[in-house]
Design goal:
Distance between the termini: 19 Å
Helix content: 25-40%
Shape: globular
Order of helices and strands: HEEHEEHEHEHEH
CATH topology: Rossmann fold
Bound molecules: guanosine-5'-diphosphate, magnesium ion
Number of strands: 7
């Protein structure tokens, strides 16, 4: 269990898990490329490999995390213009293809027109409910803010669609180490109330790279192990 309380401490891993971590590292160091954007379900790629989806409020650090995980600067666009992308973005990982990362449109941006929110909900809900290739989701939560009502709504959507997910506390470098522990505890406590939430939650920083290797391993494990 202590391994799951990922606060940057190095705990010795059993051999099998070190092997997983190394395989994950190698996969993410290899070929990765943008496949396509799907503004509607009919544009989804064939569900021929496992998918891992990323969700989170706009500006939570989703694009930065995708770039950090894949060790590439410009793979996912990082921007300060929240709520502009309204598509599911697919990234192919591995050659031959092993898995897909799916960047879901951000939510919770202020002043979103009602019909845009409706469209977002329909697209995301339909994807979550109908996608057998979807193996797990990561719900990103800004360490400075903790869980917000919009995040809980996302968690309920995943619960209802029976898609297992991990919470990931992002921008860990932005909060004091002394604040990260209590934040971890309250977030984990709340995760326990959600049937599809995995008890292991992660902390990460795309800035310092802390927690990134552990996340890669979790993604690898969820998709391929
Ligand atoms: N300090 C710090 N800033 C981050 C981190 N991740 C993202 N950011 C910043 O937060 C802002 C939003 O990031 P972005 O990845 O575009 O968020 P997205 O809207 O969720 O895709 C940008 O200014 C990033 O540089 C992090 O781990 N640490
Ligand atoms: Mg983004």
């Amino acid at each position: 269990m202590t391994r799951e309380v990922n606060r940057g401490a190095k705990s010795p891993l059993p051999n099998g898990e070190r092997d997983l971590e190394e395989r994950a590292r190698r996969l993410f160091a290899g070929p990765i490329g943008f496949l396509k954007s799907a503004p509607e379900l009919k544009f989804l790629p064939d569900p021929d490999v496992p998918e891992i989806a990323f969700a989170g409020r706009s500006n939570v650090g989703k694009s930065s995390l995708l770039n950090a995980l894949t060790n590439r600067k410009g793979l996912a666009r990082t921007s300060n213009t929240p709520g502009r992308t309204q598509e599911l973005n697919f990234f192919d990982v591995g050659e031959p293809l092993q898995l897909r990362l799916v960047d879901m449109p951000g939510y919770g941006f202020a002043e979103a027109p009602k019909d845009l929110v409706k469209r977002w909900k329909r697209l995301v809900n339909d994807y979550l409910r109908g996608r057998t290739a979807l193996k797990r989701a990561l719900v990103l939560v800004d360490s400075r803010h903790g869980l917000k009502e919009v995040d809980r709504e996302m968690m309920r959507m995943l619960d209802d669609a029976a898609v297992g997910y991990h919470l990931v506390l992002t921008k860990g470098d932005k909060v004091k180490p002394s604040a990260l522990g209590p934040l971890y505890e309250t977030t984990a406590l709340e995760a326990r109330k959600h049937p599809a939430a995995h008890p292991a939650i992660f902390t990460a920083s795309s800035e310092t790279g802390s927690g990134i290797a552990e996340l890669r391993t979790a993604i690898f494990e969820a998709a391929l192990a």
